[in-house]
From TrEMBL:
TRNA binds at Y35, Y84, N86, N132. Belongs to the PTH family. The keyword RNA-binding applies. HAMAP family: Pept_tRNA_hydro_bact. The gene is pth. This is Peptidyl-tRNA hydrolase. CDD domains: PTH (cd00462). Keywords: Cytoplasm, Hydrolase, RNA-binding, tRNA-binding. The record marks D111 as: Stabilizes the basic form of H active site to accept a proton. The keyword Cytoplasm applies. One of its GO terms (molecular function) is peptidyl-tRNA hydrolase activity. It catalyses: an N-acyl-L-alpha-aminoacyl-tRNA + H2O = an N-acyl-L-amino acid + a tRNA + H(+).
Length: 207
């Protein structure tokens, strides 16, 4: 009896340790060809770039497309929700529970109108800032205390044209600078899993 309890305890400890080495990286966006290469889909774009660079393949699964990447003893589960932006939280909650990933090991990648193009801002918590994807995640998880990676898309639009802007394609100047920014975003994700949130914020914010 004692041996059985000991084995059970050790198994639980091992599972807890393993869960601390697993990360859920969520790229927010909308599914459908009409949304490809739009500012609002930067989360999808960053994960697609990372996957292409590392020869990782996404598979269609429940509530989203997922891929797994292993690096320095860590397991990164990439998620592109198929729920559309405004219902992103449902997919995040499902995969967080399925993979037994703690809240602090989730990183949500999203566009941010309040930051100049390509600016990186990683935070451990915060408001939704009017972003519907973050708002739904907050509602589903019941907290704002989850890490997020905001990628600046600028605010070069006239009054009343915000929706057209975020659902619009990248302009020529932005496209010319995109590869370097995507490479930097890839470094941010790796750092989050290996160096931790605080070190990642110190190393990459506003770069």
């Amino acid at each position: 009896m004692i041996q059985c309890l000991k084995k059970l305890f050790l198994k639980e400890v091992e599972e807890e340790v393993d869960s601390m080495k697993k990360f859920l990286i969520v790229g927010l966006g909308n599914i459908g060809a009409e949304y490809d290469n739009t500012r609002h889909n930067i989360g999808f774009k960053i994960l697609d770039f990372f996957a292409d660079e590392e020869s990782v393949t996404f598979e269609t699964n429940k509530l989203g497309a997922t891929a797994t990447y292993k690096f320095k003893g860590r397991t990164f589960v990439f998620l592109k929700p198929s729920t559309y932006m405004n219902l992103s939280g449902k997919a995040v909650k499902y995969w967080m529970m399925k993979e037994k990933i703690p809240l602090g090991n989730i990183l949500v990648i999203t566009d941010d109108l309040n930051l100049p193009f390509g600016t990186i801002r990683v935070k451990g918590k915060g408001s939704d800032g009017g972003h519907n994807g973050l708002k739904d995640i907050q509602g589903q998880l019941g907290t704002t205390n989850y890490p997020r990676f905001r990628f600046g898309v600028g605010a070069e639009f006239s009054k009343g044209r915000q929706v057209d802007y975020v659902l619009g394609k990248w302009n020529e100047e932005e496209s010319s600078k995109m590869k370097e920014r995507l490479e930097k975003a890839k470094e941010v994700i790796k750092s989050f899993g290996t160096a931790g949130l605080n070190n990642t914020m110190n190393s990459f914010n506003n770069t």
